[in-house]
Design goal:
33% helix, 9 helices, 8 strands
């Protein structure tokens, strides 16, 4: 891995939004809504560690709902730099109850950044294409090839009765992660999810020929991943004195490459 991890003091000197330092932005966000402090304390150490581990051509994606996306965008600009911002993807769906007192909330936000704006990998040719919504306006050749998705994605949630369903409450559909992985990684690459949940990233990585590391500290999530990825290797890693991981035991699941765990055990020790 090529990047260096910033210390707390160095983070205070990072210049972000309109030239203001990271610590100033973080303080302003917490004064506006102190609930952001808890969420930030959960997200920030994982994001910084992921950023440190990324090679120069990698792309981190952060999936959030409408309540947190705007806070996180400003924070990420401060942490990584505004020039590292690549895309804001809106994932729209239409399932479940709908409010009658406001516009029903039926979308999530995916923020994409790049480690190096001049060297990142993005393969649009590897991405599954979509049908044209107005096929009569394009040539037959284009209709048959399909169109490249834009930054607005229409994709159903995981079907409550489908074979993909694991029962985990925040499970994401494989199709959404497949699209990001096809575009931003190659076969044989490592992919990492610090918020693994039901293990969807691992399932997609396995199918696409990527190697993976999944991290979660919820026993229910680990049980789901064990069933979903029966050939994965599970390592229990105890965090001692590492505030970044909230002094809790973590379950790291990966696809048999124990050397990766041994090489990066300093993450949590």
């Amino acid at each position: 891995m090529t990047a260096e991890c910033r210390t707390a003091g160095e983070r205070g000197r990072v210049t972000g939004f309109r030239g203001r330092t990271y610590e100033r932005i973080r303080g302003d966000l917490m004064r506006f809504d102190d609930r952001f402090g808890d969420h930030r304390g959960f997200l920030e150490p994982r994001l910084l560690e992921a950023w440190r581990l990324l090679t120069v051509d990698r792309t981190p994606y952060l999936h959030l709902d409408h309540r947190e996306a705007h806070y996180a965008k400003v924070l990420l600009d401060a942490l990584f730099g505004r020039d590292a911002f690549l895309d804001e993807i809106i994932w729209a769906y239409d399932f479940g109850a709908k409010s009658r007192s406001r516009w029903p909330t039926k979308h999530d936000t995916i923020l994409a950044y790049v480690k190096d704006p001049a060297r990142y990998w993005f393969d649009s040719g590897a991405v599954d294409r979509e049908l044209y919504t107005a096929p009569g306006l394009v040539t037959l050749e284009k209709r048959e090839r399909g169109k490249l998705p834009t930054d607005g994605w229409w994709h159903t949630i995981v079907s409550p009765t489908g074979s993909e369903k694991t029962g985990y409450p925040t499970q994401k559909p494989e199709g959404v992660l497949r699209r990001t992985m096809q575009a931003s990684s190659r076969k044989g690459d490592w992919v990492l999810d610090f918020f693994a949940g039901s293990g969807t990233l691992g399932a997609v990585a396995r199918d696409l020929g990527r190697r993976f590391v999944l991290v979660d500290d919820e026993p229910v999530a680990v049980d789901v991943m064990r069933r979903r990825l029966p050939h994965a290797v599970v390592d229990l890693i105890s965090s001692r004195g590492e505030a970044a991981l909230r002094q809790r035991d973590l379950m790291r699941i990966h696809d048999g490459f124990r050397r990766c765990v041994a090489r990066h055990r300093q993450w949590v020790e």
